[in-house]
């Protein structure tokens, strides 16, 4: 189901599981960005009366690695509570994001993960993504 403003506080704990370096307030801010933001969406699945999984997606108009079109639907974050993993929730959430992007005219859907996140890599490959590239990004203060 697509999340709306009434779901923001319930989405925040899953955002903290996905990106634990954030504060609870920042997690709610991220949830609000995807629930209310232009060209963004958040989808959730319930199990046992609670939100068990969350996917956040958006449209990217800049270059997306391996893609030939613009905009591209982009899976910005996906998480399933540990108690509900292995039930196909993440795959179903990703499918909802893909359908959302298709309705907005996208013919490509993309995502990314950190090089060391082998669980995310395996998930992406298992649901039909193809690996396009591997990079290491650098920065320095000047």
Describe the structure.
Helix 1 (8-18) crosses helix 2 (24-36). The chain has 142 residues and is an alpha+beta fold. The protein has a single domain, classed as 3-Layer(aba) Sandwich (Aminopeptidase). The protein is 34% helix and 21% strand. The chain has helices spanning 8-18, 24-36, 89-103, 118-126; strands at residues 40-47, 50-60, 72-80, 109-110. The protein has 4 helices and 4 strands. The chain has a 4-stranded mixed sheet, sandwiched between helices. The chain is globular. The mean pLDDT is 95.
Report the principal-axis shape.
globular
Radius of gyration: 15 Å
Q: What would CATH call the homologous superfamily?
A: Gcn5-related N-acetyltransferase (GNAT)
Q: What is the H-and-E element order?
A: HHEEEHEH
Question: Stretches where pLDDT falls below 50 for ≥5 residues?
Answer: none
State the CATH class: Alpha Beta
* Count of DSSP strands: 4
- Main sheet, how many strands, which sense, barrel? 4 strands, mixed
Number of helices: 4
Integer tally of domains = 1
Look at the structure and give the mean pLDDT: 95
Structural class: alpha+beta
* CATH fold label: Aminopeptidase
- Which CATH architecture? 3-Layer(aba) Sandwich
N→C terminal distance: 45 Å
Fraction of residues in helix: 25-40%
- Taken as a percent bin, the fraction of beta residues is 15-25%
């Amino acid at each position: 189901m697509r999340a709306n403003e009434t779901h923001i506080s319930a989405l925040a704990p899953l955002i903290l599981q996905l990106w634990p370096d954030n504060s609870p307030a920042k997690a709610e801010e991220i949830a609000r960005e995807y629930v209310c933001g232009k060209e963004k969406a958040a989808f959730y699945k319930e199990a046992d009366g609670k939100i068990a999984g969350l996917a956040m997606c958006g449209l990217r108009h800049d270059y997306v690695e391996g893609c030939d079109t613009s905009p591209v639907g982009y899976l910005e974050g996906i998480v399933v509570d540990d108690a509900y993993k292995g039930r196909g929730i993440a795959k179903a959430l990703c499918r909802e994001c893909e359908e959302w992007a298709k309705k907005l005219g996208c013919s490509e859907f993309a995502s990314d993960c950190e090089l060391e996140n082998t669980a995310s890599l395996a998930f992406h490959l298992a649901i039909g993504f193809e690996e396009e590239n591997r990079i290491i990004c650098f920065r320095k203060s000047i």
